[in-house]
Fold:
Amino acid sequence: MVKVYGIKTCGSVKEAIKFLNESGVEFELIDFKKTAIDCEKIDEWLERVTVEKLFNNRGTKYRTLKLKELNLDETGKREWLCKENMLIKRPVIELEDGRVIVAFDEEQYREIFNG
Structure:
């Protein structure tokens, strides 16, 4: 089964869920606010996508924590992703074949789920 990681109130997560529902894709939603994502899972994702793709440097949490001032390298970003799940770009979707998709891109979703 497809797993969708994110928060219910996030616009991108809402769009992804709407798309999956309309496409008849069965999925499980894992809400960051209820279930913390540990370093082990983040490392698993980082084997499949880059830290640049996974790390959200445009969100409120990034600005609130003033992380731009720290000029983080890949290791620093990984450490912050482990400490603060709200820095994970949403949604993160784990496909049954092991692939990981980050963010909502309708065209990419169409290729994967309707192709």
